[in-house]
Amino acid sequence: MGFLDIDRVTKSFGAVKVLNETDISVEKGEFLVLVGPSGCGKSTLLNMIAGLESVTAGEIRIDGARMNDVRPAERNIAMVFQSYALYPNMTVRGNISFGMEMHKIPKAEREEKIAQVAELLQITNLLDRKPGQLSGGQRQRVAMGRALTRDPDVFLFDEPLSNLDAKLRVDMRTEIKKLHQKLGTTIVYVTHDQIEALTLSTRIAVMYAGDVQQIGTPQQIYDDPANMFVAGFMGSPAMNLLPATVARAEGGPAVRLDLAGGEAVTLPFPRATGLDAREGEAIVLGIRPEAMTDPEGADRDSGALHRVDLPVDVVEPAGSDTYVTVSLGGKDAIGRFRAHTAAESGARAPFVFDMEKAVAFDPDTERRIA
Q: Which of 59, 132, 145, 321 could form a disulfide with 117 if both were Cys (CB 3.0 to 4.6 A apart)?
């Protein structure tokens, strides 16, 4: 049992089920991110934790207490919305203080709390301004400050950075992570941005079509995806998912990838489990761009490096990296090369595949098999 328990929870709107039976246990002080595309059920789940949506079946418990029938105001939860939800006619001080006033907290205590959160969030100089005089990032800090004064059991964040520009999103991600490290609060955070999920969380729940596809640490989700959806959704650029055939090489299982013009590449697969009995069968090979790189950029500690010269289709410089696209198994595959690579479009270039970092999926079930 965790501090926040989502126990066999479902949600239906009439005959339409939007969240299938879901079990998630969140420990005290954990930063859980619910990530997935629009319509996957993540915001619905967050709203049920907050009490803004009713639970169709199952239980939500906080610190062992059943929350299903508890009003939102009595759950000791603070929520930060995408829209900030600030009162435009109030100053920053008034917005932060409003919830405390509603709970009849004495003025001296309110002022002390406002000063504390303003210093923590570096908005002391903004206390007498109104929201219309603030930038997007400053408004988000005020919304967070208002939530912090509650000293809640759980913080809920609903896509709080989606209205900010790219640079400000990065800055605010850092601020939210610092805040969690300072306060050690329990946070459930909803986003569709997988970079936010990977950088902020202590654990991630990847959601799709009303189901939790996988729960794990950011490294587990990235390195060991449970299925093709998780593999393709998490990571930028996404994992290459390439049609392949199970073969044999060097006395063990391997994968064969077709190239244009009738050529093929065979790569030994070091993880034999699940592939030994599938020789000749079709699979989907999953390999991340950084595991398809130039010889100098390869991980020298790997025991399964294999060099192949491949015809290059596209070269895309991206500052610190260069993305090199080739055709494998009839699909585009992206390799992450060093910045100053000699690879050129229309010519052959050496690729080194780190097969220790490769995974295999069943093309029918889309589940991980090796």
A: 145
